[in-house]
Task: structure prediction
Amino acid sequence: MIGGYVIHLSSGTAGFVGAYWIGPRHAKDRLDFQPNNIGLMLVGAGILWLGWNGFNGGDPYAANSDAGAAVLNTNVTTAMSLLVWMTCDVLYYKKPSVIGAVQGMITGLVAITPAAGVVSGWGAIIIGACSGSIPWVSMNIMGTKVPFFQKVDDVLGVFHTHCLTGFLGGFLVGLFATTEGSEAFALTTPGGAIEHNGRQGMVFLSYRFCCYRLWCLFGKFDRTNRLTLHQYGFKLLVVYLLSAGTLSGRHLLCCS
Result:
């Protein structure tokens, strides 16, 4: 269950907030910034994909069928996410992109991490399709048209590839976790929503809605009461802890 909320949502949130406070690059750098070395990027992407198999496959702490299922699901989801991302590039930009393929690979790895050992093969395919399409829309359409994203110079797109995708992977594990996969990791839950355990999904959505309303409440307070920098930083810390640091994928699976 490492990943999802524990690592990727929290790191994506921290990176996005950091980019906001650091401020944007010069305008000329934002308009024209070419990749430095695409070949070296591909080498790093290959090492990352290879190492991720050990990361997810090592969760059972043994070379058994559970580890094999985790490795298989990791590769299936990542490959599916890469292909879907490239397909979106072709449909929207009329040509594929090597950088886009690497982005799709990363989103696939991020999304499958909390679910690798507890979902079936078809669940891994669905997760890959979602991780290759939803973050693509967020990065390439919302990221270029929504004014809020224009104010934050998120150079590497960590909000889309880590924050959003980590949220997506953590949510989907609550939908597609199987009873057999949960039992293999000694989880007490009878699987996810596909195993008629959909209550956790409602708990999750209700919790996130409360966090969103809390953020709106703070925003309204900002407009009526001028906050100092210290108070505003405390606001971000409180909302961050509520939204990312207090509820993990394992907690979701145990809400039965």
